[in-house]
Amino acid sequence: MIKKKSLSPVKLIKYYNLINHNLIYNNKAINRYKKDSFAITSDKANNLEKLRKSIHNIKNCNLKKDAINMVFSDGNPKSKIMLIGEAPGANEDEEGLPFVGRAGALLDKMLAAIDLDRKKVYISNIINYRPPDNRRPTDEEINRYLPFITKHIEIINPKILVLLGSTAMNALIGNEVVISKMRGKWIEKKFGNCKTSVIVTFHPAFLMRQPAQKKMAWIDLKMIRDKKI
Ligand code: URA
User: Fold this and answer.
1) Which atom of ligand 1 lies nearest, measured to the CA of 98?
2) Cβ neighbours of residue 225 closer than 8 Å, sequence gap 6 or more
3) Among 103, 104, 210, 212, which has the minimal tally of Cβ within 10 Å of its Cβ?
4) Spacing, Cα 189 to ligand 1 middle (Å)
5) Do 74 and 97 meet the contact criterion of CB atoms below 8 Å apart?
6) pLDDT tens across 158-171, in order?
7) CATH class of domain segment(s) 42-226
8) 32 secondary structure, DSSP code
9) What is the best residue among 203, 207, 209 to mutate for testing ligand 1's pocket, by most ligand atoms within 8 Å of CB?
10) Sorting pLDDT into bands at 50, 70 and 90, what band is 118?
11) Is the shortest distance between the CB of 142 and ligand 1 below 6 Å?
12) What pTM did the predictor assign?
């Protein structure tokens, strides 16, 4: 019969130290990009506040270091129409609101043309902090903010989702599509529990550079106006 030998407490401590038991038993995964995730409830205002805090808590983001303000959203969270742009510019960074510069003035005109305004829609961007010199956000930056805008869509739960420009389109539909082929079409998409009709149209900043394309944007706007929701 093998006699069980019990170790004295001192020997036991030495043994645990020897096998580095802290590392073995307390070794939690180090997750640098730990998501500040939360369950969406029926309290929209509270969900939005939690999302705002999650974005505020993003760590090691260079965009954040250079920006003045987080640009979260504008408009009516109860709206059935949500618009998503690319990223804040200098004016948006200063005011902490999306589309308040020159592109925003054109967006307001586009909305007014179909009898909408900021009280009737909800507006956000793929990225919540201004990229320096208004450069396009990198793929890494887009991937980092994608879970947040996806959750934003899920919280607002719009019937119509308008993607303004190719950055929003590629981030939310995929990189294989091009705006000239995608604009002016309804596609049904699911973001979490939110099922929505998506339409892509040109970004107002692009329309300022290419005014000839405004006639195409007008077609898209009329489709939004005429959509039964
Ligand atoms: N362009 C965008 O895509 N978003 C803004 O908020 C402003 C300009």
Assistant:
1) 6
2) 114, 115
3) 212
4) 23
5) yes
6) 999 999 999 999 99
7) alpha beta
8) T
9) 203
10) very high
11) no
12) 0.85
Taking the centre of ligand 1 as the mean of its atom positions, its distance from the CA of residue 203, in whole angstroms, is: 9
Angle of helix 139-156 relative to helix 44-56, nearest 10 degrees? 160
Q: Which atom of ligand 1 is nearest to the CA of 97?
A: 6
Give pLDDT, residue 133: 93
Measure the CA–CA gap between 39 and 214, rounded to whole angstroms.
Answer: 40
pLDDT 10s digits, 54-102: 999 999 999 999 999 999 999 999 999 999 999 999 999 999 999 999 9
Delimit the domains of the chain by residue range: 42-226
Please give the distance, rounded to the nearest whole angstrom, from the Cα atom of residue 99 to the centre of ligand 1.
5
Q: How far is CA 205 from CA 142, 182, 191, 200, 214, in A?
A: 19, 18, 26, 15, 11
Beta carbon of 200 within 6 Å of any ligand 1 atom = no
